[in-house]
Amino acid sequence: MRYNWINAEEVSFNSFLLLDRWIIAMICRDYREWAEFEKNLGAALANNPAVAWYFAHRSPESKPYVEQIIASAAKGLSADEVRQAEIFVLHAMETSVVYAFPEVMNRNCNYIYDWDKQHLLHLADFTDALVLDVGSGTGRLAFAAAEQARQVYASEPTDRLREYMRDKIRRENIRNVKVLDGTADSLPYEDNTFDIVMSGHVVGDNYDLELAELTRVVKNGGVIIDCIGDDDLKRKPDGELLGRGFEAFYHVSKSGGDIYTYRKKITK
Ligand SMILES: C[S@@+](CC[C@H](N)C(=O)[O-])C[C@H]1O[C@@H](n2cnc3c(N)ncnc32)[C@H](O)[C@@H]1O
């Protein structure tokens, strides 16, 4: 599926130099069955030695694979053929490449720019609450919650996005948002810390592990929220969340998407 969040024709292959180890590892691990992607990635890396070096050193677990696909890459490609291979890879990885360009993310991702913060603020009482946002991205949920909460922790595993949020906090003198690293399956917080733990477009790779971790850090009587943005996708309610005791709330986005948000009160 192509979202067109980036225009790959205008994006340098060096953009991968801005991405984190977990993204490089994912690119080198999760698409090995996709022969066309592997062929283009090999050709692009063979002709971009600095990016190939970065892949192998930033993600040492990917080094054997990087060396293998470079060794198998077509030889003697023209500059135009190399650029076509780069564009193929950039397009294929656009949902990760866009993390290198947070302003582009805010401008081009409809789930961010079409969203109304009331869809979050109606889900719980944020007044004076201690809140965790897991996988904050550019801070769609975190900055909305901060308008009412006492303190928001924005947890985000992508360095460029952490820096984007820190720059915004400095620029706008926001005093109650702190930005930290962390993934949904391994959050750097003590048990029973937060009144509200929220996320959007993050939970789903491993529901059991991720929800166990979100539940661990929420206080007894606290709330877990899953609040996606207003995209244009037609979808059904998430049976995995409903089956784990979440309530669902439905609305139609401006662009006709079926948007479900979820809430679960946690009793320990
Ligand atoms: C599609 S974006 C959504 C950003 C934000 N939550 C929003 O809805 O506007 C997904 C975000 O989750 C982060 N992410 C990816 N894997 C993650 C994980 N395992 N745990 C926490 N965050 C993750 C990405 O770096 C990215 O910022």
Task: Please characterize this protein's 3D structure.
The protein has 268 residues and is α/β, with parallel strands linked by helices. It folds into 2 domains: 8-100, no CATH class; 110-265, Rossmann fold (3-Layer(aba) Sandwich), CATH 3.40.50.150. 41% of the residues lie in helices and 16% in strands. It has a 7-stranded mixed beta sheet. Helix 2 crosses helix 5 and helix 3 (49-58) runs antiparallel to helix 4. The longest helix has 14 residues, at 79-92. It starts with 20 loop residues before the first helix and ends with a strand. It comes from Paenibacillus typhae. Keywords: Methyltransferase, Transferase. Pfam families: Methyltransf_11. InterPro entries: Methyltransf_11, SAM-dependent_MTases_sf.
Explain briefly what this protein structure is.
It is built from 13 helices and seven strands. The chain has 268 residues and is of the alpha/beta class.
Proportion in helices: 40-55%
By CATH reckoning, the class of the largest domain would read Alpha Beta
* Share of residues in strands: 15-25%
Poorly predicted runs are none
Radius of gyration: 20 Å
Helical segment count: 13
CATH superfamily of the largest domain: Vaccinia Virus protein VP39
CATH architecture of the largest domain: 3-Layer(aba) Sandwich
Shape designation: elongated
Largest sheet: 7 strands, mixed
CATH topology of the largest domain: Rossmann fold
N to C succession of SSEs: HHHHHHHHHEHEHEEHEHEE
Q: Give the tally of structural domains.
A: 2
Widest sheet: strand ordering? 3-2-1-4-5-7-6
What is bound: which ligands?
S-adenosylmethionine
Gap between N and C termini, in Å? 40 Å
Mean pLDDT: 97
Strand-pairing-aware structural class:
alpha/beta
Number of strands: 7
Protein name: Methyltransferase domain-containing protein
InterPro entries: Methyltransf_11, SAM-dependent_MTases_sf
GO molecular function: S-adenosylmethionine-dependent methyltransferase activity
Organism: Paenibacillus typhae
